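Subject: two folds for Thursday's group meeting

Dear M.,

Sorry for the delay on this. The cluster queue was jammed most of the week, so I only got both jobs back this morning. I'm pasting them in the order they finished. Each block is the input sequence followed by the predicted structure tokens. Could you check whether the formatting survives your parser before we put anything on slides? The first protein is the one we discussed after the seminar.
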Amino acid sequence: MSGFLAGLCVAVLPLLAAGFWLGRRTARPPGLAGLGTPVEHATFETLHTASLATPPLRAGLTEEAAGRSARKLRSLLGTDALCLTDREQVLVWDGAGAHHRTEIMERLAGPLDSGRGEAFPLTCDTPDCAVRWAVVAPLTVDDRVHGTLVACAPRESAVLVRAAGEVARWVSVQLELADLDQSRTRLIEAEIRALRAQISPHFIFNSLAVIASFVRTDPERARELLLEFADFTRYSFRRHGDFTTLADELHAIDHYLALVRARFGDRLSVTLQIAPEVLPVALPFLCLQPLIENAVKHGLEGKADKCRIQITAQDTGAEALVVIEDDGAGMDPGLLRRILAREVDHTGGIGLSNVDDRLRQVYGDDYGLVIETAVGAGMRVTVRLPKYQPGVHLTGRLTPK
């Protein structure tokens, strides 16, 4: 889909440039004199104007996005007026003739239903009104008409009909990309909910049971563990942002491990080697905790002696390298591949496959989990985190690339 959209953008922009050149009233912008031929001037200005209109449109067909992009779109077409509508109302009117809003909406039933553009004369009793003709081009996403682009001019023009259609196609591509961005965000949020749901009810029950066991024998210890439990659950079920810092994720892991140690005592040994310079690195929220939980579970499973877990985070220049290693039961590599591919259900597999999917979605396929394991040989999980990635911000949601 992304390749198709990119190809469509490449195909549409030259037509935009041609339409801009033919429709503009002035072919040589004064500020660009001496920088090439008139066609080159028009092409440059078209591409520049289109680039300015793109960011608002990537937010979807909303009143705010329409208001921020309408003037740039009108400049692309060189028309006296332009409006953007959804299926119910005019979102923005830029230019002359705003009193035609009601008439425009009354004439949109056909284009909205059929998905085909139309051109028609406007009726107006205002003698000095600058717009007498309207060209309607539908805005479609996945073959569904979401709204229209309407260009208004003093007279009928075949060039405007063609240019409006091409600009509407370009706007539709931006809206489709916005829809994909929103779908991607919804998917990431669903996966975070899945991870939260995966926080074992047995872990919660066992943690509370351990805390309760200390209430009479060691009230201070019970209070400390209760605070650890509260901090861990508060972090795990927070609602702010899709990303966190490595420092915050490790802090939550420390709360989790404190509760596990209270239950298993000396059976669990955890070693951390963390380079201070990687602590501010951003990463997907709840990315490492499921890996630690998996290491604890499989490290203690079927063993009467100690489980040793080592967590390291190194600075490798452009990336942070996080390695989680346990000396537990390990796993058959073939079964692991099927778990990551979601071909089989396996206790704990949701966490591994979920984290792997999220890393690939955010950073690309080169950044999936690298897992080394064998039956009886423990497990080593490596996570590579770029120190900078477009779209990864700590203050909000995943932003479009």
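Second protein, same layout:
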Amino acid sequence: MHPRPAPTTRWRRAFAAEARAERPDLARLCLLIGAEADPALDDPGITAARRTLDRLAALLPTGPGCPRAWAAAVGELLGARCGFRGRPGDYQRLESSLLHQVLRRGRGLPILLSVVWIEVARRAGAPVHGVALPGHFVVGFGFGFPDVEERVLADPFGGGRLLSRTDAQLLVAGATGAPLDAAMLRPVGAVDIVRRVLNNIRAWAATRPERSDVALWAVELSLLLPGHADHADRLHHDRAQLLVQRGDFRAGAAELDAYAEALAGSDEAGAERVRRQARAARARMN
């Protein structure tokens, strides 16, 4: 028995096509997530959000110079003048993970505020990338430069404060207890950023059983991203459990069976546990 495929909409078709483009457009992908979450976000709304990014970029000085100067200029514009920053309460709001709402409110999670910085700075020609420090997403300027000393980290959630290496070490130690590793400073691509955004949305919904609808569409969008087969298998398992949670026992059981089949070659005991979950789901069918 094959699982029921996730529903397809024009937004999802656009999201899948953009994610597989040679150079995925980060802002467009994040806005398409917003269209999934917010039925009021339509084509004109997406266009308006992109124009906001263009307008902000036009306010930056022309080629301020070295990476530190770029970081200072973007921080002055977005953090000081426009008030983009985060607060602890933002972690409790779904809007904090939706780009069009972050542009409207000036508030969001570290990764979404970083998306605003990345998209505005790139439009102005800055050498900017996302940097996924454990537990706290930031932006880096000049990471393509051979001189390590020229590279600069900035924290959009903190209004754009520049981070010394000691600051970064403290952030990592606070999140993981481990030392800062050079690999943690590598630039993160658009698809990986979007995957992290969707993971954050799933984490938000996981603590709110009444919002299993949000968890379900976040999983289904994650399945449209290019990635490794084993990751997709785990997502199918998560989708199956959400379908069962939402009362779609037949579709959930079919997806559990498919996951068990994928798992059987490497973990027969795990596959049998999933088969039992499928049988339990079918037993709940009326």
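Two things I noticed about the second structure. The first helix runs from residue 10 to 19. The two ends are 19 Å apart (CA to CA).

Cheers,
T.
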